[in-house]
Specification:
368 residues, alpha/beta, 7-stranded mixed β-sheet
Length: 368
């Protein structure tokens, strides 16, 4: 059983993927070719913003956004400690300080009540993470940012396609970043990412930084990076994009079936994913909470059922961030989640028989 079944997806879209790749091979524009421009236009339209700027990875896109906003040494950016390291890593890469605040126990997203007390004169931006596939309480986050004159960067690596009160992830903040890593809901066949904004000047700076700091060859107005998205990868995403909404509906259907089967089995609070009012969820991961998580995962593995843990350590526990001065106990909700969360197989092609096998393996593991 595959945790995420990319092979079945490939077989379903094989002709479209091959046709798109063959076109690139024939025209030979492998860097910033026409497929990149086409994809940026289609993604901007899908999200509902004026600008999409693709990038070499979701990590690069976060760094590009921070650099374009002028964030650097001496600045602080508020985010969550319960996320993949890229979120805080990019803040440190530009010379700024990550400032962590805890999460909500039901959605795993940043707790808006804790943001304002963490703001200092050095705070320049807020970077909420739309974890596991749904957006945080972005209206409150934007209100706080507006009161303090801060930018908001949505780390939407896991939530592309999700909505909140009808507005899509990546459309509601100063800038937003997503990822096309193969395991994401909309993935390519390598690394890739994209930025979104309605700010024309910010879009121009992000586009320049992505390409060595210049919009024209041999004319560099900013210190940039080589953060360009490969044309071949753009072709893959273009082949998948027409099927994306149907895949999201499949994810919702599979998640609802998991919910109904697992609620009676699990006894921890927030044991199955909670969808916040006004949200849709794309279930980049289907994440539950269990006691004795590692033992349960090992028993399921013995039955041939894969699981994953996102994330076994919070960022303030990572050695690279020890210098920030945080200690165990500073973020109790994140810390508890990191010891209890377990993600089950989730992808649009998961059959009911395989899903039943997951549910039965989990039940047996819990009973052991």
């Amino acid at each position: 059983m595959q945790f995420i079944d990319l092979q079945t997806q490939y077989r379903a879209y094989r002709d479209d993927i091959h046709r798109r790749i063959q076109t690139v091979l024939e025209h030979g524009q492998f860097i910033l070719g026409p497929e990149v421009t086409e994809l940026e236009t289609e993604l901007a339209r899908y999200v509902g913003v004026r600008h999409c700027i693709t990038a070499a990875s979701g990590t690069d896109s976060l760094e590009i956004a921070l650099r374009a906003l002028g964030i650097g040494p001496g600045d602080e950016v508020i985010t969550t400690p319960f996320t993949w390291i890229s979120t805080a890593e990019t803040i440190a890469l530009v010379g700024a300080r990550p400032v962590f605040v805890d999460i909500q126990p039901d959605t795993y997203n940043i707790d808006p009540d804790l943001i304002e007390p963490a703001i200092t004169p050095r705070t320049r931006a807020l970077m909420p993470v739309s974890l596991f596939g749904q957006m945080p309480h972005i209206e409150r986050i934007n209100e706080i940012a507006a009161r303090h004159g801060l930018a908001v960067i949505e780390d939407a690596a896991q939530s592309f396609g999700a909505t909140r009160h009808g507005r899509r992830s990546c459309s509601v903040t100063t800038a937003a970043s997503t990822s096309f890593f193969p395991a994401k809901p909309l993935g390519c066949y390598g690394d890739g990412g994209a930025l979104f904004t309605n700010d024309d000047a910010l879009a121009e700076r992000m586009r320049a930084i992505r390409n060595h700091g210049g919009l024209k060859r041999h004319h560099h107005t900013l210190v940039g990076m080589n953060g360009r998205f490969d044309t071949l990868q753009a072709a893959v995403v273009l082949a998948k994009l027409p099927h994306f909404d149907e895949e999201l509906r499949s994810r919702e259907r599979i998640a609802a079936r998991y919910d109904a089967a697992l609620r009676p089995l699990l006894d921890l609070p927030h044991a199955v994913p909670a969808v916040a009012p006004g949200n849709t969820h794309v279930y980049a991961q289907y994440t539950i909470r269990v006691r004795n998580r590692d033992a349960v995962a090992a028993r399921m593995k013995d039955q041939g059922v894969p699981t994953a843990v996102y994330y076994p350590k919070c960022l303030h526990e990572q050695p690279v961030f020890q210098g920030l001065g945080y200690r165990w106990g500073d973020f109790p909700v994140s810390e508890q989640a990191s010891r209890e969360v377990l993600s089950l197989p989730m992808h649009p092609f998961l059959t009911e028989s395989d899903q039943d096998r997951v549910i039965q393996a989990l039940a047996a593991a819990l009973a052991a």
